[in-house]
Amino acid sequence: METANELTITPDQAWQKLREGNERFVAGTARHPNQDAPRRSSLVEGQNPFAVIFGCSDSRLAAEIIFDLGLGDAFVVRTAGQVIDDAVLGSLEYSVGTLGVPLIVVLGHDNCGAVTAAKATVDTGDMPSGYVRTLVERITPSVLAAQRKDLHEVNDMVVEHTKQTAERLVESSRLISAAVDEGRVAVIGLSYRLAEGNAELVSGFGALEHPAVLRSALPK
Length: 220
What we know:
- This protein has helices spanning 11-27, 37-42, 63-66, 86-97, 113-124, 132-148, 154-172, 174-181; strands at 51-56, 74-79, 103-109, 186-192, 199-205, 213-214.
- It is α/β, with parallel strands linked by helices.
- Helix 5 crosses helix 6 (132-148) and helix 6 (132-148) packs across helix 7.
- The protein is globular and about 55 Å long.
C-alpha cells in the first residue's frame, strides 16, 4: 500500500465528491465509476482513497453503492452500530497517517437494529447475552445523551449516536485530532435514510463550510 501522494484532495473536495455521488444514487443516475479492469489493474501496487467511511455493518448501507464509488475510492470500516473499538481506531489512524485520507465519515442510518437494541436495554433493563452485550454497552451512552435532550425516538437516537461517535473519534485519537486542527482532515457525521437513499450531514469537525461542522477539534 502506498502513502499519500500528490493526488490527495482537501476535506471539502472529498465531501463534495461523496455528496455528488450520493445525489446520483438518489436520482437513479449512478455512473458506477472506477469498476473496470483497467482501474483494477492500476491499483495492484497501491491505493490512494479520498475518504474513509466508518459505518454500520447493516446490509442496506453499502458505502460504495450509496456514494456511487469504485475500486480504490474509499477506505471502508464497518461495525454493527458503527461502534468504536481499538481495531476501528487503528484502521482510521492508518487511513489518515499512512494513506493521507482527508475525510473521515461516520455513517449512521435510520431504523438501526443496534441502536434499537440499546434503547430496549435502557427502557427495560434487560441486557442481551453474548458479544451483543458489548455493542449495546458502547451505544448506551448515546441513547442516554439523546434522552437528556428529550429525544426518545430511535431515529433521533441514531442521529445522536452518529454525532457522539464522530466526537469520540476526535477525542480518542491524538493523530486524528491533530490532523483536524492542522486542516488536513475533517471528521463528519452523516445520517442515512433507507427509504430515500440520501445521507445528511449532521455534525463534524474540521475545514468544511457547513453550520453543523466545528472548525477545529475538541480541546483535550
